[in-house]
Amino acid sequence: MTSNGPFPRLLPDSTSDPAAIARNDWSAFSEIDVLRDHWTVKQWAPGRTGYYWYLTFDDADLIEFAAECQQALAIGGFDPVPLDALHITMMGIGSTGAVTEGQIDGLISIAREHLSDVKPFDLTVGPLSGSSGAIRFSVAPWDPLFDLHQLLSTCTGEALRSVASASSAARFRPHLGIAYNNIDRTAIEVIDAVAKLRRAERVNVRVNQVELVVLRREDHTYRWDTLAVLALGG
After folding, report:
1. Distance CA 79, CA 108 (A)
2. CA atoms of 57 and 169, how far apart (whole Å)
3. Is-above-0.90 flag for pTM?
4. pLDDT in tens, 20-58
5. What domains are defined for the chain?
C-alpha cells in the first residue's frame, strides 16, 4: 500500500491513548507493500532552505533509546538521523526566498505572545514503527500536539497572509523519525526487522519550547539553524 496523503491515512481510535496511537501506526506500517527512497520522493532543490516550526530534543534517555534502535536495525539502505538532530516537525512555513525577514520577525512576535498561554506538556516516545520512507517512533498523546499545531498554523497565517493556515491540519501526523530509507524496495524485510525492535519500554520527554528554524538538506541529512526558541507558558 502506498499513498500520497498523510501517514497513517486514518486517525487512531483515540488521539490521547498511547496504545491506540501505537496500534494505528503499526497497522498502517505493516500494510505497506513498497518502501520508497525518501530523498527521491521528498524533492529538495540544491541550495534550498526553508522556515519550519520544530520541536527538538536533547533528552539523554531519548538519545540512548534512538541510538539503540538505530544500531539494532540490522538491515542496510537507511540513513540514520543524527542523534543531535532528533525532532518532531510541526509545520513548514515557506522557503527563505519566498518569506521576508520582516514577516519572520512579525511571526516570532505573534507566536511568542500566543505560546505564553500554552502549558508545557509531556510526550511518550515509542514503540518503533515506520512509514513508506522512514523508520520512526510513535509519539503520544496527539491532542496537545494537535492544539500546538493549530496555534502555530493560526500564528503563521496571521503573519504570512499567503499561507493557508488550515491546509496542513488534516495531514498532520505526529512522529519522531530515526532513519530514512534510501532505496526503493519491497517492505516486508524492513517490517519484520522493525517488528523485532518493538519493545515494551517507552521514553518520556518534556515539551516546553518550540523552535523556528531554517532547514537545509546536506546530502542525506537534514540540518538547521535556529532563529528563535519560544518558551511555552512564557
Report:
1. 32
2. 23
3. yes
4. 999 999 999 999 999 999 999 998 999 999 999 999 999
5. 18-231 (3.90.1140.10)
